[in-house]
Each structure stands twice: as C-alpha cells, then as structure tokens.
Write a structure and sequence with these properties.
binds calcium ion; alpha/beta; 4-stranded antiparallel beta sheet; 10-stranded mixed beta sheet
C-alpha cells in the first residue's frame, strides 16, 4: 500500500499533463485472452510457467489485483466490455452458438464507436463470440450486421470460439478463403449427410472429447455444431496464433501515424488447445500450459512491434481475460492430470462459469509509459467501466444511460477509489459485491445465502452470513433494488 500511495502522488501530477497530450491522443489496445485465469501468469504468482511477455505489461504498467469482468463466461463478459451494459440487460447475452445473430444493438453506443467518434481508427482481431448477422447467415455472402456495424473499421475474427463451427475466419464481413464452387453450410441442429462427426468417427480424431464436441471434425478436432463445404477456408488451429498476431501487427503498421483502437482477442487458452508445434511440450503442463506460453509469445512479439514502430510510450495497452480459468472444458487434453500444484485461479475459489471470485476476478494490467508509473493497484475495478472511462479520457459523450462508470482515475492509478459495487454473473446466477463483501444467493437446493469478506478470505471458505444478518439483509435488498431497476435479472 505504501508503494501505491507513493505512486498515487506521482500520478496525480502526471495526470495533470493529460490535457497537454490532447494534441497527440494515446492509442488504445485491449488484449483480451480467453479463459486465462488470475493465477496463470508469473506476474500474478504462477511459478510452474513463466510468462515474460505478459509480465512486461505489468512490469511497465499497473497490475490490478481486484479487477473483474461482469460474467464468468465469454459472451456476457465481452458484451459488457463492448457495450458498457450489464449482461442481463440483454436476454441473448448467453454463451452463443456459432450461427447466432449479432446480439449488440447497432444503434447503441459501443466502446469502438466512442473511439471512432474520437477520431480513432478501430479494429477487432481474433476471438469474437458476440454473434454475427441476422440469425440466418449465408456464410458465402456478406455477413451483416457484424463487427463493422458495432464500430470496427477493420475486423479479422472467428465467428464464435475455437470449438464451435464455422471454423473459418471472417474478414470485414467476408468468409476468408470461401470459393463459389465449394460453399460452406452450418447447422446447430443436425449433421450434413456424409460428414464424419466426433461422435461417430473417433478413429479420425487426434484430440478426443470428454464432454460434448460431438459435431463436425475440422483439422482432426471435433467441434460443437455441424458444417460442410468450404474445405479450403477451414482454419488450422496450429497457425491461428501467428495469423491473429500478424493481423494485429499489420493494423499497427497501417495506422501508426494516427490514433488507433485495437481489440486483440487472443484465442488461448480456450479449448481446443492446439498450439503451434514450437510450443508443444514446452510447459510441462500439457496443451493448456503450452497454449498459455504461445499466447505469451504473441503478446511479447506484439509489444516488440510497438517498440519497433515507436508506439510504446503513447499507447495504452490493457491486457486482461474474459473470464476465469477452466481445466477440462470438453476435451481429453490432460489439463487436470498435469496441472500439479499450479493454481489457475490463484488464491481464489471458483472457475469459469461460477459466481465465486475465481470466475470473474481476472488478470488486468494497464501500461501507458508516458503517463502511468509502474505500480500494483488493489483498487476494485471492472472491465465494463472502460467504455465510460475511455470516453472521458478522449473527451467523448453519449446519450444512452449505461451501466459503465467513469473510473478513469482508478484505471490510471491516481486514486484508490474504483467501483463500490458490482453484480457478477455465473452461468445462471448472480452474486453481489459491495466493498469488500460478496453475497451469493442460494443457487441450488443445498445451498444457503453466503457472505464473504473477499479481502480477508480470498478463498471464500468462511461463510459469515449468519454472523452478519444486517449486512446480509442490506445486500439482499440492494441486489433486489438493482433487479427492479433493470427488471431483467432472470434465472436467479
Ligand atoms: Ca472465455
């Protein structure tokens, strides 16, 4: 804390310099990993694997120890980051199939639209998983609406996830490599005649499912959903990391002379974990560890490209993850067998999909060398607040009432005050955080109300609900109030 206070004073003075930078707006890059846990990085305490690339952002910037996404799964978490809205305000913000329609209202404010308004060139590269099109997409034609309608001038993305069809890339709304004589068709209802599947053709698999993933086989890996055709357009998992990296680097090169905003969605360590051969066996923890090393290499290379282009000093780089970690996520890839004493969620209880802290307390680092001094911040912050905060930083306003709060000061390390409360979403339930306390309502017939002091009890082992009836009641009422205000918290 002493260091934090020291740096706070230094930063107060450096913040005063921001208006002077107005002539030269900072570039903004958000690198968002997929299912990377709080404890998966060496700068967050991992010892079995070393992540020097990602650690560099922490060493040269602020490493947050109490940063959250709004949800413990991808789609709702990413929805909040992009729209500044709680995920329950949109009933469609649940884990989406790969042929789902775009769930973002193209008329509403989004983070990239704010950046466009501020004069930034905008781009999305990598993982998407927010739906594309109108619900009846013909992948062989223009996919509309999509990333462009959400605010990205340029995009090179997966439609959903690594493990869902369609297993092709979409560049500016167009399926990459699709040819008229071999069109691609996708279904989440039934297989196409004559196409092998993970369920019926295990002899064709090089990676076997543990749960689900009974659909089409692409690159020897069974996926969720069915596709046929578009053979030449099918991605190769081993090459995906470098391809996304190249697209991200090209965007830097193309836009180095003007302000830019880049959303770089790393596809690791989401399943299927298929690293490039250079990383196979390098972690000693199986494919999950290997793809974390691969992602770390990508970050390192990306940062080096920024150095080379002279972009490092005046670019805000935010490195984070969309939700907590998971080991077995549907493939037999030895993630559980080889994890040993590595703790993907660090000191926290819970994982991807859960309401416990490991589900939504994620790695979050911010580097801006010309303004922000390196430090560690214990301030409670949320990814959803980047929209309002970066709008404030770039002098932008919007008319909509959104849930995103301006906590720019906290993100830049100049004050201790961040969020005072936050609702976080598990797979089907909601937990409520207020100050240092987390309240978890009963989520099945066996559980009761739970209350934890997350600072004193990061492992959420000691339920103090019974000893604190007044606090519990006040938090229950506040969550009810939030439900009434939005009227749309369901399934709880
Ligand atoms: Ca995820």
């Amino acid at each position: 804390m002493r260091n934090l206070r020291f740096y706070s004073a230094a930063l107060m003075s450096s913040l005063a310099a921001i208006p002077m930078l107005a002539q030269k707006k900072p570039n903004i890059v958000i690198i968002e990993a997929d299912d990377l846990g709080y404890g998966d990085l060496s700068c967050y305490g991992a010892t079995r694997i070393k992540t020097p690339g990602m650690d560099r952002v922490a060493n040269e910037g602020i490493r947050f120890t109490d940063a959250h996404c709004t949800a413990a799964t991808s789609t709702p978490s990413r929805y909040s980051l992009l729209t500044g809205m709680y995920p329950w305000t949109n009933v469609d913000a649940k884990i989406l199939p790969g042929n789902a329609a775009l769930i973002i209202d193209t008329k509403r404010v989004t983070l990239p639209k704010v950046m466009q308004k501020a004069g930034y060139a905008t781009s999305a590269v990598g993982k998407w998983h927010l739906g594309l099109g109108d619900g009846a997409v013909d992948w062989n034609k223009k996919v509309y609406p999509g990333a462009k309608e959400v605010g990205y001038d340029y995009s090179f993305i997966q439609a959903a996830t690594n493990d869902r069809v369609p297993c092709i890339f979409i560049e500016n709304g167009k399926g990459v490599g699709l040819e008229p004589d071999d069109p691609l068709y996708v279904s989440y209802r039934e297989n196409f005649r004559g196409e092998p599947t993970g369920k019926d053709n295990p002899e064709l698999l090089r990676m076997h499912p543990s749960v689900g993933h009974a659909g089409s086989i692409v690159n020897g890996v069974p996926r969720i959903g069915f596709q046929t055709g578009g053979k030449k357009a099918q991605w190769k998992d081993e090459d995906m990391a470098e391809l996304f990296l190249d697209k991200a680097k090209k965007f830097l090169n193309d836009n180095k002379d003007k302000p830019f905003f880049l959303y770089y969605g790393l596809h690791q360590p989401h399943v299927p974990r298929v690293p490039n051969e250079r990383f196979v066996g390098k972690s000693g923890m199986g494919p999950r560890g290997d793809v974390i090393l691969e992602a770390d290499w990508c970050v390192d290379e990306f940062l080096k490209e920024m150095d080379r282009l002279g972009l490092t000093d005046n670019t805000i780089v935010i490195l984070t993850s969309d939700n907590g970690p998971v080991l077995d996520d549907g493939y037999k890839d030895e993630a559980e067998e080889l994890v040993g004493d590595h703790k993907p969620a660090g000191p926290y209880r819970g994982w991807k999909t859960t309401m416990y802290n490991g589900g939504t307390c994620i790695p979050f680092m911010l580097r801006w060398p010309s303004v922000v001094k390196p430090s560690v911040s214990e301030t409670f912050v949320c990814q959803m607040d980047l929209l309002a905060s970066l709008a404030a930083l770039t002098g932008q306003t919007y008319n909509e009432k959104i849930d995103s709060q301006n906590t720019l000061g906290a993100f830049l390390g100049n004050q201790d005050k961040g969020r005072s409360e936050l609702v976080v979403e598990g797979m089907f339930n909601y937990a409520y955080r207020q100050g240092d306390y987390v309240m978890i309502p009963p989520y099945n017939a066996k559980t009761r109300y739970e209350l934890y002091n997350i600072k004193k009890d990061p492992g959420q082992k000691n339920n103090i609900a019974e000893q604190n009836p007044r606090l519990l009641r006040q938090m229950m009422m506040r969550l009810e109030q939030l439900k009434r205000e939005t009227g749309k918290i369901t399934n709880y």
